Amino acid sequence: MVVTELTLECPYCNWIFKAAPPDKIHSAFSYEKPLRGNFYGEVIEQNFVCRNPKCQKAFAVYWYAPLSYFDRI
């Protein structure tokens, strides 16, 4: 199974970077941990450091399976 990379932005400076979901089910992402009841299963946290030389702040991307995904199955 091939997981496609997404183009995201640093939440602090909007620097563009690529990130890949951990699997097909964890397709939604957020820069803040989603509230319980809005996702199915576990939330997977990926940590990044901005590659912009003027920013270089650390941040997390939270991957989760939105409940609406399972409504379609």
Q: How would you explain this protein's 3D organization?
A:
The relative contact order is 0.29. The chain has one domain (6-71). The strands form 2 sheets. A 3-stranded antiparallel beta sheet has the order 3-5-4. A two-stranded antiparallel sheet has the order 1-2. Helix content is 7%, strand content 42%. The protein contains 1 helix and 5 strands. A hairpin with a 6-residue loop joins strand 1 and strand 2 (16-19). The protein has one helix at residues 67-71; strands at residues 6-9, 16-19, 28-30, 39-49, 58-66. The chain has 73 residues and is mostly beta strands. The mean pLDDT is 89.
User: Over the alpha carbons, how many angstroms does the gyration radius reach?
Assistant: 13 Å
- List low-confidence stretches: none
Helix-strand topology string:
EEEEEH
Largest sheet: 3 strands, antiparallel
Summarize the amount of helix as a percent range.
under 10%
The total number of structural domains is: 1
**Integer average pLDDT:** 89
Total of helices: 1
* Principal-axes shape call: elongated
Question: Strand share of the residues?
Answer: 35-45%
For this structure, the quaternary state is single chain
Query: How many runs of DSSP E, i.e. beta strands?
Result: 5
Strand order of the largest sheet: 3-5-4
Class from helix and strand fractions:
mainly beta
End-to-end Cα distance, whole Å, is 18 Å
